[in-house]
Amino acid sequence: MTMRAEVFTTAAELAATLASGTEVTLLDVRWRLDRPDGHADYRAGHVPGAVYVDLDNELSDHTVTGRGRHPLPDGAALQQSLRARGVRDGVPVVVYDDWNRAGSARAWWVLTAAGLTDVRILDGGLTAWREFGGALESGQVIPAPGDVTVTRPDLYTGTRAVVTAAELADFAAQGSLVDVRAPERYRGEHEPVDPVAGHIPGARNVPATGLLDESGRFLPDEEILARYQAVDPARPPAVYCGSGVTAAIAVAALTAAGRDASLFPGSWSQWSADPSNPVEIGAPSVPEV
User: Fold this and answer.
1) Side-chain-side CA neighbours of residue 276 (13 Å)
2) pLDDT digit string, tens, across residues 186-198
3) Which residues are catalytic?
4) In this structure, what DSSP letter does residue 137 have?
């Protein structure tokens, strides 16, 4: 199995799995920056059998302070939530969303960091499922309780590499700190969420949306790697976004392409909240290729 097949699944593959009767847990993780609660959209129509997961309240822990707008969840709380969503040990999990793979990538990162080993993102999300001809069902799915065990209760030291704010200057000095936000946010021309505009000094800009094609599917591995050709290949890059959600898109893409990457979970929301941290404005982005 290729690394890509360990990170993504296609609509055709998911349909075949469901048709065969093979057990799989489907998690609908709809989330958008401008509409974080996707529950209503889920109830209006979702992949049959899918259970809704609230990114803000189940894949984040807002009781944590000083770690940005979407701190990583506590492992015990995550385990309780996943069991309530029917997640079971030994049963594969497929996560999907309907907006730029942000919700599903966050879920993939959190679940795999917590120690789950068989989690895949539906490539192309709900749009790909519809285009394939997959059916939708409405309403709420109430699953039987699961028994999944979170083996890494502290996700900041889980199975996925994490970097701290104190380590970022070293990554920047070696050309391997990546800001995946839109270029105008990176340059400090527009900041719709956080009170300070700009980016972490020395960061390069490789927007996460540029890792997807026009249909919302991830680019081929070679094209993903090409977008990182200006980032030091000698070490895994550290990636950040606004609050640690969309940066997971880049981690998933790079992992699928066979390149490791670390996440700064607090991202710009954590960095910019500390007035002692330097801010850079207007630096050029990495050229599109």
Assistant:
1) 2
2) 999 999 999 999 9
3) 241
4) B
